[in-house]
From TrEMBL:
The keyword NADP applies. It is an enzyme of class 1 (oxidoreductase). Residues 13-324 form the Enoyl reductase (ER) domain. GO terms for molecular function: mRNA 3'-UTR AU-rich region binding; NADPH binding; quinone reductase (NADPH) activity; zinc ion binding. The keyword NADP applies. It comes from the Bacteria. Pfam families: ADH_N, ADH_zinc_N. Keywords: NADP, Oxidoreductase. PANTHER family: QUINONE OXIDOREDUCTASE PIG3-RELATED, QUINONE OXIDOREDUCTASE-RELATED. It comes from Rubellimicrobium thermophilum DSM 16684. This is NADPH:quinone reductase. Its EC number is 1.6.5.5.
Length: 326
């Protein structure tokens, strides 16, 4: 039996809480595969897990996104086989590893045209963008969406998705350079969250009306301003908490601000059914293969530098996706 370098959390905390162990790789059991990673995606949710914001039972693996090659399959696994190139988002935590034994259900086959690095940059973030635009509230060409943060891993995919569907995306990001990057990737307009008032600027850009939908992954710091950016009867999709969890609030606020709708979704509900996951992945891959979405990787690091990758993400010092290489 071989071993694989694997990140383990024995306690939650700062980036230094990520410990490394050589874990044995047993033969895959029923419904499982042995997967050797070629690229691993870093996501903000990894920080919520590591810090304890999203509770875990310890000890725990870390990481929810990877791409690689199947080395062995257990009994009953039919949709993938040894030698297949695959990628996944979700399943048990543990993507920060050279190789792992995991359930086969979250795996999808990777088209030859998509590299492992691209897959690790686009699976979790791109499926998120897919459900935000296609499965949460009806959004039609010409509708205006305010998206934040617009220049990160998820954000730059959202900008490209909106452009490819004729949706007007106003991207909000921290600083002029990040705003320029969002526009390069398809944001029609941008709002600099460091220097501009989010709600006032969104209203100005929509002739005073407000946007149809807000997709807010910043959380605590922007929640009220995002509500204030909406038109009457608009929808707030609060999908993340990079700045911390949204504080409890009086739901009467939604009436006072114009009969607003509010939802707090997670990708993992949307991809719980493997048949739906495969359909969503096929639609996402089509956008990548056609060139409508070019996964942008601005940080590549050896797997052993996962803690440094977390520090950079938390310091708002990254753009696009971060990928770890085993
Ligand atoms: P990003 O690459 O977007 O990095 C996070 C960005 O958040 C930073 O670069 C920064 O951009 C912004 N930010 C704003 N305030 C803070 C703060 N106080 N501390 C740190 N960062 C801050 O990360 P991801 O693409 O991985 O994730 C983006 C968001 O999407 C996260 O909230 C994540 O949880 C959410 N998400 C939700 C999913 C779901 O299904 N619910 C699935 C996937 C992602 P700037 O400098 O421009 O402000």
């Amino acid at each position: 039996m071989s071993v694989a370098r694997t990140a383990v959390l024995h306690a939650t905390g700062g980036p230094e809480a990520i410990a490394w162990e050589d874990r044995p790789l047993p033969a895959p059991g029923p419904g499982e595969v042995l997967l050797r990673h070629h690229a691993i995606g870093v996501n903000y949710i990894d920080i919520y897990h590591r810090s304890g914001l999203y509770p875990l039972s310890l000890p725990s693996g870390l990481g929810s996104e990877g791409a690689g090659v199947i080395e062995a399959v257990g009994e009953g696994v039919e949709h993938v086989a040894p030698g297949d190139r695959v990628a996944y988002a979700g399943g048990p935590l543990g993507a920060y590893a050279e190789a792992r034994v995991m359930p086969a259900a979250p795996l999808v086959k990777l088209p030859d045209a998509i590299s492992f690095e691209e897959a690790a940059a686009v699976m979790l973030k791109g499926l998120t963008v897919h459900y935000l635009f296609r499965r949460t509230v009806p959004i039609r060409p010409g509708d205006t969406v305010l998206f934040l943060p617009a220049a990160g891993g998820t954000g730059l995919i959202a900008c490209q998705w909106a452009r490819s569907e004729g949706i007007r995306l106003i991207g909000a990001a921290g600083g002029a350079a990040k705003c320029a990057l969002a526009r390069e990737h398809g944001a029609a307009e941008t709002i600099d969250m460091r220097t501009q008032d989010l709600a006032a600027e969104a209203r100005r850009l929509t002739g005073g009306r407000g946007v149809d939908v807000v997709m807010d992954g910043v959380g605590r710091d922007s929640f009220i301003a995002s509500l204030d950016a909406l038109r009457p009867l608009g929808t707030m999709i609060s999908f993340g908490n990079a700045s911390g969890k949204v504080e409890p609030f009086d739901i009467g606020l939604l009436a006072a601000k114009g009969s607003l709708m509010l939802t707090r979704p997670t990708l993992f509900t949307h991809i719980a059914d493997p048949a739906v996951l495969r359909r969503m992945a096929a639609e996402l891959f089509e956008k990548v293969i056609s060139g409508a979405i070019r996964p942008r990787i601005d940080q590549r690091r050896p797997l052993a530098e996962a803690a440094a990758a977390h520090r950079a993400l938390e310091a708002r010092a990254t753009t696009g996706a971060t990928v770890l290489l085993p």
